Amino acid sequence: MLLSPDGRTEAHIPSTAGGSLPSGLFTLGVASGDPLPEAVVIWTRLAPRPLDGGGMPDRPVRVRWEVAEDERFHRVVRRGVALAHPLVGHSVHVDVQGLRPDSVYHYRFRAGDEISPVGRTRTAPTPHSRPRLLRFAFASCQDYQAGFYTAHRHLAAEDLAFVAFLGDYIYEGPANPAALRQHEGTGEPMTLAQYRNRHAQYRSDPDLQSSHAAFPWIVTFDDHEVDNNWADEIPQDPALQTPEAFRERRKAAFQAYYEHMPLRRESTPRGLDMRLYRRLRFGRLASVHVLDTRQYRSDQPATIEAANDPALSMTGAEQEQWLVHGMRTSGSRWNVLANQVMWASNDRRAGPEKVYDLDNWDGYRVQRRRLLEFFGSGQVDNPVVLTGDRHCTWVCDLKPDFDDPASPVVAAEITGTSITSGGNADPVAFHNTYDPIMAESPHWKYIDNQRGYVVCDVTRERMLSSLRLVSTVRAQESTVRTAAQFLVESGRPGISVAG
Ligand SMILES: [Fe+2]
After folding, report:
1. Which of 364, 395, 421 is nearest to 139 (CA)?
2. Distance in Å, CA 342 to ligand 1 centroid
3. pLDDT tens across 265-291, in order?
4. Partner of 496 at 20 to 30 A CA spacing, among 93, 265, 291, 414?
5. Would you say residue 19 has pLDDT above 80?
6. Distance of CA 15 from the midpoint of ligand 1 (Å)
7. Which domain holds residue 149?
């Protein structure tokens, strides 16, 4: 199948004659994502000079791809040719069709005389099947400057159906000379060329490449893929970026994000927007509702009083309706939300005074209450919210009113830690600060501030999640351990520390 930049099949490919290609085409590795029962997206980007615009000639290049049942490619089941087009940074997204459900495949690409590393992927079970087990991981927040991707090296060695990445895939900050390793470039990225270079720097990391190559990923962004704490068309610092300049910046950031992620055609940026909220189904066992809490949100309120404004929305009305309808009708035992910022109330100060991060759902209280009342209405089976952003593990019961002890527990939230952001942690200082607040926050069940990721084992009866912590992000080698496990039982809202 021949694909144009917008993914349409083309009967005729423009000539790619024009000289030989530079060497080192597959510096960014391979990836796959958004598995369906009979299809999965496979990805690569040709970039012989990853930090300098990619280094490809300004013309489309044919890329052959193949998908096989075995890693030696003796049993190839699908193959084709795609176009790596300069308009999409010579990235390739192939939506491979006609695969068998719930099956492992291997894939690779060829361009010029070169062949890519081999990726492994896996399709989803058929919609009406009843899988005995679904095992996946979720992760977030991988500031390149904060450390090495030791967590990805261990993540790649897990046995998983997919990885859900909940945002802060890149950070937009300028190079920090004091950091363990430095961002490329001379400042924050603003243009498409600059965002491409930033993504390419991250994607050049071999440990990140290994975890992409091991499983399909289901990705969503948070703020740092564009600008810290952006909200719809509003940047972090409106005084420094005009509305027009920020719209152009957002377009550039979305385009580079799409070019580097294994996303389906539906997520191609169009104008100012990019459709990222979507649903993936794993038989009748679980649906994953992927949220976008940046692109449509109201600006952050300035005070707790202002956070009670019913007009504030984290998702926009259309996405909220999509979420409610999709959760109600999913037919799934588990309704998992791939979400960015914390739902559970998260006071930052001990004593009667309360301090919240109003960029979180604490800033959008009326909508949060409305959705949590829906979670508790009996219309949706086993909602579990998985969250990034916090750079800590925060395991919580969810209640429509966190200030009312009588408010019922309606769901569970696991805020995962970060891959690197925050660097190596000081658990003693963390617990000195937060243990007294935890004593005043009975819906918090477990807190921790060390680096890693979370693995979730889902059966019809329960979801058992393991916090996997690495020993360091300040060296390339680390060990990994299961620091704690968290149990959600089907039909019993809330979460507990297991064992
Ligand atoms: Fe982050």
Report:
1. 421
2. 12
3. 999 999 999 999 999 999 999 999 999
4. 291
5. no
6. 43
7. 125-497
Average pLDDT, stretch 466-481? 98
Q: How far is the CA of 438 from the centre of ligand 1 (A)?
A: 22
Statement to judge: residues 306 and 242 lie in one domain: yes
Number of compact structural domains in the chain? 2
CA of 486 to the centre of ligand 1 (A): 23
The CA 141 to ligand 1 mean position distance, Å, reads: 4
Q: What is the pLDDT of residues 238-260, one digit of tens each?
A: 999 999 999 999 999 999 999 99
How far CA 4 is from CA of 7, 78, 85, 233, in Å, comes to 5, 19, 7, 29
Ligand 1 centre distance from Cα of residue 433 (Å): 20
Count the Cβ atoms, other than its own, within 10 Å of residue 24. 13
Using CA atoms, how far apart are residues 252 and 116, in angstroms rounded to an integer?
27
Domain final residue pick, 123, 147, 182: 123
Enter the pTM of the model. 0.96
- What percent of the chain shows pLDDT beyond 90? 95
Q: Assign residue 93 the CATH number of its domain.
A: 2.60.40.380
166 CA to centre of ligand 1 in angstroms: 9
Q: Are residues 203 and 119 in the same domain?
A: no
Question: In a 10 Å sphere around its CB, with 0-12 CB exposed, 13-18 middle and 19+ buried, how is residue 406 labelled?
Answer: exposed
pLDDT at 4: 47
Residue 87 scores a pLDDT above 90: yes
Q: Using the mean position of ligand 1's atoms as its centre, give its distance from the Cα of residue 415 in Å.
A: 12
Q: Whole-angstrom Cα distance, residue 38 to residue 18? A: 37
Structure tokens at 186: 């001379």
Average pLDDT rounded to a whole number, residues 18-40: 95
CA distances, 427 to each of 296, 472, 485 (Å): 36, 13, 18
